[in-house]
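To: structure desk
From: M.T.
Subject: fold request, one chain
Message: Could you run this one when you get a chance? Sequence is below, nothing fancy, just the single chain.
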Amino acid sequence: MRRVARPLLYVGVLAIVAGIAKAHATWVGHYDLTGSARFAWTALFAGIMCVTAYGFGLPDVPRTRAAAVGGSVGAAFTGAVAMSIVQLFVGDALLPRSVVFGSALLLPDWYRLCIRLSAGGRLRAEARARVVVVGRPDEVAALELELQGQPERPAAVIGHLTPEAAAVQPDGTRPLQLLLDQLHPTVLVLDLAAQQHDGVVAQAGVLHERGVRIRTLSAFYEDWLGKLPLSELERASLFFDIGELHRAGYGRAKRVLDVPVALGGMVALAMVAPLVWVANLGGNRGPLLYRQIRVGKGGGTFTLLKFRTMTPSGPVGGVGNWTTEDDPRITPVGRVLRKTHLDELPQMVNILRGDLGVVGPRPEQPHYVDELTDKLPFYGLRHVVRPGLTGWAQVKYGYAGNESDALEKLQYEFWYLRHQSLRTDAKIVGRTVRSVLGSEGTGR
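Reply: Done. Structure tokens follow.
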């Protein structure tokens, strides 16, 4: 039911909005809905409600009853307010208030029903994905912690052995087979040491014939968690096709899609810039824009543009310290700009110039790149593609405030390089919309 819950939610939105609009047209306005201009605006409103529902994480993200209620009500009324703002901007009542706010009153119940369906499916999926791990205790602990977050596919670790304990014993005992006969897992995960141990691999082959899925630790991270663990990476494991390098059509199509997005963003930038300038006079005195040198595709540098959110300090574009989410240098106006992500709008200029794409690894400052290249294995690989306004690491992990965070994000960036495609980019854009509407910060 989990896979059905999301399309069912969207179908319900369309049915409820269209039903209320049709009822108003028939019994109140006495007009033909499909033959009027309001039909197109009804479709737009339904689309807005679908986007806000996705943005609030419905129906998948809420895990508690309070989160389900809050997300359902928040999504419905955010959509209604968004439509009201559109009508205010256009200067006309495009849809009757009874349609807009009537939908906002009815949809939360539908949202909660879909959330329950999704939750039931998630629990059944977790019951199906029963995992036994053969690996070091620290690897098992890290994997269990990862699965408690927001995995791409839910699973639960039900047992584990070290490679030595799992191997065939001198007396012929097969501990791994005995454990799996006892626990009945659906997935067996082997770390690098286990893969190189003949006594473990032999037992895994027998279990594979019985229907147990076998995954390397790296493959399990990739499929279930959307990342490539650095502890499992070898140089040969990074020899995979990268969209921008090995598929010329993808690179061209990506750029063709980036440009209209940037042009639309430039319109928003022109509207917002005067308001930010006025706000800066009161609570963010200093230059309107912040310029900083970042490393781009191929290791070259460019000047990244943003609305300034911190007190001016040091030379513009100079070397700075890691920025934390609650950095005391952030001004009151800057805090609002960061929370709403409006500070990112000037980067539309960077996208038009080709410095950035809409999706890609976030560009870092040159001195951080130098430090991280020395400390993190294969860090330079992230620079073979154009950096982006948003990326897989940003939507999966969020803010990077130190080297440990940079290491964590690098594992997600390797996953993106391996899976770079228009479909993956669309998925990331959708997750970014969800992150912004859900007020979850993305990494800088």
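Reply (cont.): Confidence is low (pLDDT under 50) at residues 314-318, 439-444. Let me know if you need anything else for the meeting.
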